[in-house]
Amino acid sequence: MPLKTPLEYVESLKAMKIRAYVGGELVDNVVDHPSVAPHINTVAKTYELAHDPRHLDVMTAVSHLSGERIHRYTHIFQSVDDLVKKIQMLRLLGQVTGTCFQRCVGLDALNAMYAVSFEVDADKGTDYHARFNDYLAYVQREDLMLAGAMTDPKGHRAKKPSEQDDPDQFVRVVEQRPDGVVIRGAKLHNTGGINSHEILVLPGTGLVAGEEQYAIACAVPADAEGVVFIFGRQSNDTRKLEEGCDIGNTRFGVVGGEAMVVFDDVFVPTERVFLNGEIEHCATLVNYFATWHRANYGGCKGGNADVLIGATAKMTRILGTDRNAIVKDKLVEMIHRNETTYASAIGSSALGYELPCGSFMVDPMLANTVKQNITRNVYEIGRLSHDLAGGFLATMPDSKSFENPDIADWVRKYYGANPEYDVMERIRFGRYIENMTSVTTMVEAMHGAGSPQAQRISMLSQAAIEDKIRLANEVIYGTDDVPGLPLPLTSPAPTNDDKTK
Ligand code: SF4
To answer: For the whole model, what pTM was predicted?
Structure first.
């Protein structure tokens, strides 16, 4: 069965020569770096749970290529049930790690590339789909951790890729060779790339004629010559280098270990190139990816919020406020917001439909609604957590103060609350809440899978406003009353064409 164990994942990373800079310094091996380790631990959980018989159904699937049981993170969605199980997998992993487990970007990129390579072939007579299937079989067989790389730096936001002063602001092909292409540029906010096996590079935007060099989709090993990761900073990240209870989420990351990934003239062999110049299909590729990924957030953030709600509920017990009706009501509000986004994610999956290639897409309107709600509900849930936990989240002393005999008695005494709980529980849970409601976590919820306006544009384009106006006209001016019913005529139909506008 092609399912890596967590240790095999770590060992396989160790064997790679990933070129990464953390804190401005070149890292010998990402596996050994304390800033990267929490993110590796998080991904390792995705491998571990696939071996747990209790979670087999959610964490694994049967490959439509090989017929073998594979990790759901390398699976092409074959049904509505697959879409629903994916959301359930994300909630489970969110509950177990309390953070971003990174593999969904690669999964959605795989699915987007699978679907679009089929559509490009049908349109252009190319052979991308078969080529991509060979790659997919390799990913499934090896159970690879795949990072998707979409977001270009974009330079001047008012200019298209071809109008930029610096042409490298969007990843592009700088050389076509008989056996492949050479790509240059960078991708930002790359989730999990620094601890992945492969990077699936996709265009980050729709393109127009004259921008063929930017229409490139390909797979690159994370340690390929010319690939460089520059690790991002996160709120409180140096806490991970400490010991004690100030760390927050002690074993796992805060978000997805995002990095800038630079492609410094990277050669990509033809068998790893899945789109090369077909500008007409870039918008669909971006749209497919974004739609799947936006639905995800109701699952992963749902699981993360379960942990945060749990930490907050426990904090109310530590403080002795848990029996207060207002406190309970605020917890209910947190639960309500969380379950609402989860329900939307399940709903978008339940209403999934088949694409031309035979794989399944979530309902786009509901998927975008999920993500739009996440940009608010994650903040609101965090706000309520702060409200219930209290101002000490921002003012508590560090854990060393509780160890220094000169002051330990004072801080223990004056931070004590319900005597059923040790004061250090209050500090530990307070740090967790502080950590997981920090700026990085919030911004990720806001901008991950596209900023809020991107969802609103999609929602408006799918809302069929003209149809809604027609519905309103029919209800208000309609004459399809059941014959014989004594309905009053409330307003005469207009004599002009207004009722059709
Ligand atoms: Fe997966 Fe959520 Fe992280 Fe995106 S933000 S990679 S959906 S866990």
So the answer is: 0.94
